[in-house]
Specification:
about 180 residues, alpha+beta, 11 strands, globular
Length: about 180
Amino acid sequence: MTQTANREYSYVLPTQHNGITYRSRLEAKWAVFYSTLNIQFQYEPDGYNLGGIWYLPDFFLPKQQCFIEIKPTYPTDAEETKLSQLSIFTQKRCFLFFGGVSIPFEYPDTDDAAAYFPTGGCDYGYSWCECPQCGFFDIQFGGRSARCICSCEKIGDRSSNYDSEKLLNAYEVARTYQFTK
């Protein structure tokens, strides 16, 4: 098997971590990322009937009040439609991370994540960020930590903190984590 084929296979390889069996190695790596940052998450907590289409999102993050979907490649139109409908139905933000667990904007063509909003809108270029005042982790456009949903007083909305030391460490831990099964 080629290196590319091995990498593609690992995306769909069921992987056990901390007592949970994830449908893919990539989902398990994101679980490692969340655990490294002490971000509370629920894996596949509930399924939704979205106008006759059954959908089971990968993660729900209670403190961030958002759903996360993980895909190995750029999303299809059908995947984007489901996330948009989920956001409208639940009135929560939804994010689709595609590709590997990588540092945002590490490569020139990296958008990192797509965001879907309860209003029906969609945008790209979202990434994890850390509030420099309280340490809350959130997902915002361009990693703009001044937009975090924590209750800290914000000054402007242009400051980015997508490459804080804690985030960089979590990306590295998740990328290099060796699963036993």
